[in-house]
Structures are given as C-alpha cells and as structure tokens.
Amino acid sequence: MFKKRKLEKAYIRFVTENHTNLYRFSYSYMKNQQDALDVVQESIRKGLSSLHMLEDESVMKSWMYRIVINTSIDSIRKRKKVIMMEAEDIEFHLPNTTDEYTNIDLKKAIEALPHSYRSIIMLRFFEDMKIEEIANVLEENVNTIKTRLYKALKLLKIELEE
C-alpha cells in the first residue's frame, strides 16, 4: 500500500512538472492544439489507470512517453472523416492573429521526416532525452536509435541546404 501511494505521488509530480513537454511531444504527432491536448489528457488517464503495472519509478519518463506515442497513434487511426475546406473558408474561421515561427524552415523539415525519424529528433533535441531513454520509449535497440538519429540529421541537413 505504501509503495502504491509513493508511486501515485511520483506520477502526479511527474505529470505536473512535464505536462508542457508531453503536450509539445503530442503536438508533433497531432499537428493540432485541441487534439494534442486531448491526447495528453487521455495519456494521463491511461497512465494513472495502469500505474500498478509500473514496477520502478526510474522508468516513469520513458513509460509515459510510450503512452503518449501510442495514444497519439491511436487517435490518428480513429480519425477517418476529413473535411476539406477552401483557403477562404479557413481564413474566415480563424481569428485575426498571425503565427510567427523563428525558424520555419527547420519546423517544415522536421515535419517532413518520417514518423520514426521525427520521434527520435523530438525526443533527443526537444525533450532532451538520452539515446538509451529514447530506445526505451520507442522500444527499439540502442544501435537502431543511433542509426536513425544519424540518418534523420543527415536528411535534415540535406533539406535545410536546399
């Protein structure tokens, strides 16, 4: 009982401290603020309900990122109906604000990467995870992660040089 309470407190602390990072990571999959928020909320719920399966608090970070990845992928699969809108219709429904990105080329280049490469780039450089942690999150071999990271960086370099 004491261990369960301790784990729950650690989980709450982790979620409180990392909710922004979880959102940013989810957004890299969902490309939509509301969908990313929904994924984070659902991931937190799933994590809390399956907390009893977590044996060691030290792997909570990679365990939670794995839940976010799976929930994001599930959400993407569930989306079946897509309504195409004309540009004028979209502009009519948007508020009169303009998003400004300091490095739009880098953002586009990262978004153009395949999911397997993009996930590694996001986890390594935006979530500041070590290679071993990324391998744990993605359930891959460390050498596979290193190879994909190298390949992703090479693809980004080529894309940005163009």
Automatic annotation (TrEMBL):
Gene3D superfamilies per UniProt: 1.10.1740.10, Winged helix-like DNA-binding domain superfamily/Winged helix DNA-binding domain (1.10.10.10)
Pfam families, A to Z: Sigma70_r2, Sigma70_r4_2
Boundaries of every RNA polymerase sigma factor 70 region 4 type domain copy: 106-156
Residue ranges of domain RNA polymerase sigma-70 region in the record: 15-81
InterPro entries associated with the record: RNA_pol_sigma-70-like, RNA_pol_sigma-70_dom, RNA_pol_sigma70_r2, RNA_pol_sigma70_r4_t2, RNA_pol_sigma_r2, RNA_pol_sigma_r3/r4-like, WH-like_DNA-bd_sf
Assigned keywords, A-Z: Sigma factor, Transcription, Transcription regulation
Listed CDD domains: Sigma70_r4 (cd06171)
Family the UniProt entry places it in: Belongs to the sigma-70 factor family. ECF subfamily.
Protein name (database record): RNA polymerase subunit sigma-70
Source species of the chain: Viridibacillus arvi
